[in-house]
Amino acid sequence: MLQQTTIAAVIPYFERFRKRFPTVADLAAAEEAHVLRLWEGLGYYSRARNLHKAARVIVDELNGQFPDTVETLQNLPGIGPYTARAIASVALGHGVGILEANTLRLYSRLIELDQDPRSTAGNSLLWEFADWVVAPRSASAFNQAAMDIGSTVCTPENPDCPNCPLNPVCCSLKNNRQNEIPVAAVKKQMSDVTEVAFVLRRGRKVLMKQYQPGERWAGLWDFVRFPVSTDTGDQLRHLRGNSASGQRSLFMNDAVPLAEQLVQQQTGLRVQSPELLRQMRHTVTRYRIRLFCLFSDKVSGSLNRSSGLTWKSAEELDDLPLSTTARRIAGLIQNRSRH
Q1: pTM for the full model?
Q2: Are the C-beta atoms of 67 and 59 separated by less than 8 Å?
Q3: Which residue, of 14, 51, 172, 277, has the fewest CB within 10 Å?
């Protein structure tokens, strides 16, 4: 859970997770959907799927015995060098160093690393330093202390160098370069994407799909969703550069007919008079996504059996693992159903 997530965000998830799955055997026996539902909101859902797979490997292939070396830990799904060494040092007491966001920054400044610490060469140097500097007989305390210094003192901006216990041996501080190091990584180019989530309702049920292995958000459920961009037709070419209200108006007038066509192609269903529930913006990896949420309860025709879609009641949505935006849409639909 602590991979790519802050401690403050993880704590409530960790407590709920441990309460529901107190042992590795309990986790191994669970349905993937239950695991994903408890993980919902943490993002990077492959972590949850790998955690579940790792529990099953431990129970089914290792007779319930947890691996106890860095090498054997890395044989488990989802466990790479950092996680393996964190477990080995903090939980098992092995004398190995670890490198994560906070120690990467701390160690880069200590040795005044003049290259991108995430590059192959820079990362290799830092791993060597982490193993060299760790106190082998107290690696657990040492590594946790290094992470704490990195998160509370050697911060990304305005590091508190005067109060840092390591300032006598910090090469960056000595040369007044603590604000230049670590060397900034080249920023990923962000791409703008427009998507439509179409909520189709018949009676008290809405149309849902479950993402399959290999797809984004595999294992999660979602409403009918598809990208609509300039590649899908000239209808959307004039969305950019308009005000928010102008974009909304243009979308409803020009893009909705296209969305209705795409819905019919995907589902076999025809929709009439859709309304715009909400417009959302969110970011996934290198994509800035503008999501238009449409709703229609005027649905006719027969659902394509090959569509992979199924009707779910509004109440059932509480138990389904949903993407973050799908959960927000589900809240809108459930509130609407109550009224």
Answers
A1: 0.67
A2: no
A3: 14
